[in-house]
């Protein structure tokens, strides 16, 4: 149970900014519902897309955990449409130092959620947009 009563800052909503992401989000919701129905026994139809053979669960968990901080999700949101400089990230996130931003960027870079766009600017990795939209649409409450 979430006992946090503070008002959340602007949360990432990439699906609202692009029709393709909205469609992907809808498909993710439908897939999530199918998974829920299968796991809870409401529907015994196997889900062929759930083939985990060959997957490293540790690598997958690390990859997803890189997104596990609100600042990192905000960085993904801010860099989704255009490259953003570290200085602009500091200002837009209300952070005190560039060091704090670089700490979060390093994690996102290590797991390829963002990429260097040159001149101390970063952007969301285009190859990861679908994965991020899928993750956010599934966990959206």
UniProtKB/TrEMBL annotation:
<dbReference type="Pfam" id="PF12840">
    <property type="entry name" value="HTH_20"/>
</dbReference>
<dbReference type="InterPro" id="IPR036390">
    <property type="entry name" value="WH_DNA-bd_sf"/>
</dbReference>
<dbReference type="InterPro" id="IPR011991">
    <property type="entry name" value="ArsR-like_HTH"/>
</dbReference>
<dbReference type="InterPro" id="IPR036388">
    <property type="entry name" value="WH-like_DNA-bd_sf"/>
</dbReference>
<protein>
    <recommendedName>
        <fullName>ArsR family transcriptional regulator</fullName>
    </recommendedName>
</protein>
